[in-house]
Amino acid sequence: MGTTERLPSSFRDPSGHLFHSDGTLFRQVNDVYRPSFELLESSGLLDALVSEGLLVPHEEVSTSLAPEPGAYKVLRPEPLAFISYPYEWCFSQLRDAALLTLALQKRALAHGMILKDASAYNVQFRRGRPVFIDTLSFEAYEEGTPWVAYRQFCQHFLAPLALMAHTDVRLSQLLRIHIDGIPLDLASRLLPRLTRMRFSLLVHIHLHARSQQRHADSAAAGADESQEHRSAKVSAAGMQGLVESLESAVRKLSWRPAGTEWGDYYTDTNYSEEAQSHKAELVGKMLDRVAPKSVWDLGANTGVYSRIAAAHADQVVSWDIDPAAVEKNYQQVREEEEREFLPLLLDLTNPSAGIGWANRERATVADRGPADVAMALAVVHHLAISNNTPLDDVASYLAQLGRHVVIEFVPKSDSQVKRLLQTREDVFPHYTREGFEQAFEQHFQLVESAPVRESERRLYLYERRSG
Amino acid sequence: MMTQALAFMALVAFVQVFFVREAFAYLDAGTGSFIFQAIVAALIGLSVTMRHYWARIKTMFRGRSSEAESTAASEKAAVGND
């Protein structure tokens, strides 16, 4: 066997873990999980979930591949094109992930099983739809016992969704700080008082937070925690009611961008139709030359050029900083059932960092790359001028994100750049076509470049210099 | 809202009686969340049952013709309380 490496995020659950062996992802299932896995198969739950597309399918392979002792099985899950995280999702993506988790919980209960965790990190997007990836999240349901993952569901899903819907959509970024979901006392404080008038939010967030506080206080006062921690009884009907109440709470949450016309969002361009169609044609031609498997469109807005890229690549990640643009993009993916197309939230000037244990549990954007092509259309002026990033640093970071780069240079004479410079001193003497080309040629080799007709912009296709 | 909150407080004492067994998992369920969940589930269960009986009483008064309506009512009751 070649190199084997346990995934840095896979250490919490003693039931098993994920590892890479020679670039392939496997899951070791431990002996301790045998009874649950047997029930998962014999109850028909596994087949039901996989055939409905709710759970990632897997193949069983030889246990001799197991890197650690105590292996009961080794599985090879169907690979996913891209791993994304809840703080990169728009409102509807997190909402769909929440509903998927509850759908799994319902199916599990109907088969005599229950979800033993409800982490948003167990959901990924595959072919435009959310899918559950943790095959080891199921255990036998014993009537009378409460749902161990109730708190986790509220922290990972309900609290961020309620905050996004009722306080501010940007609060999804609290998930970057709180890796196990948003603490309910914090959510309760940040939510408007009016949300106490909604039964589901009153109960699952506000009163839930108060109950946690009360028990924390009594534990601090020296109360016997083990006595306290004995489970209270929840009948099967109560469990069903609880899950349905959570589902109803999630379904009632909605978010629409304030102050924008949903229909004509993002028509704020300064160039002609001719320029636009020529730019699209050039992008298509450049991508054709590379024949990429994966494309990352950085600063994709609602995904106009990502969709052009999708015609030339197997999989496109469509990144944008604006939650409204990502939301609209995702709505379109859902409506038109676009497969292998993933809209995600990204601030390119502060990209998703490595977080969690040893900063390695959740990977940085660059660590999840490089893509075959990173596209940066109408972006460079935002990085170089709005964020003061030297062009050399822009080129060096893009060389981490893509083996090739399709990039548009927008000169100072362009009205969009003029607008950025209107309210500030021009401290960018090197922001010129020559300065741009010089910076990029330190990290890339030019494949081709062409001016965009009826505009002052220019498109470049670069290939990363090896080493 | 106040009555609902009071009902919760009253149920706290009620549910504490129903401790049945230890249930430890690799995930810490949180004592506060665990106890609270039992209260919520009991309340929701109670409300589903009450609505179910209420629907049956209404059906009794209206006659057998509205059986379909009764089913719809109990389905609605099971969905939640918002």
Task: Describe the protein's architecture and organization.
The complex is a heterodimer of chains A (467) and B (82). Chain A is 38% helix and 18% strand. Chain A has 467 residues and is of the alpha/beta class. The model of chain A has no long low-confidence stretch (mean pLDDT 93). Chain B has helices at residues 2-16, 31-62, 67-79. In chain B, helix 2 (31-62) packs antiparallel against helix 3 (67-79). The model of chain B is unreliable at 12-23 and 69-82 (pLDDT under 50). At the A-B interface, helix 4, helix 7 and helix 9 of A face helix 1 and helix 2 of B.
Would you kindly provide a brief summary of this structure?
The complex is a heterodimer of chains A (467) and B (82). In chain A, the strands form 4 sheets. Chain A has a 7-stranded mixed β-sheet with strand order 12-11-10-13-14-16-15, sandwiched between helices. Chain A has a 5-stranded antiparallel β-sheet with strand order 1-2-3-5-4, with no helix packed on it. In chain A, strands 6-9 form a two-stranded antiparallel ribbon.
Largest interface: pair, residues per side:
A-B, 54 and 40 residues
Count of DSSP strands of chain A: 16
Main beta sheet of chain B = none
Biggest sheet: strand arrangement of chain A: 12-11-10-13-14-16-15
How many helices of chain B? The count is: 3
Radius of gyration of chain B: 17 Å
Q: What is the overall silhouette of chain A? A: globular
In percent terms, what proportion of residues of chain B is strand? under 5%
Task: Report the β-strand fraction of chain A as a percent range.
Answer: 15-25%
Number of helices of chain A: 16
- Oligomeric status: heterodimer
User: Percent range for helical residues of chain A?
Assistant: 25-40%
Overview features:
A: 467 residues; alpha/beta; seven-stranded mixed beta sheet; five-stranded antiparallel beta sheet; 16 helices; 38% helix; B: 82 residues; 0% strand; disordered C terminus
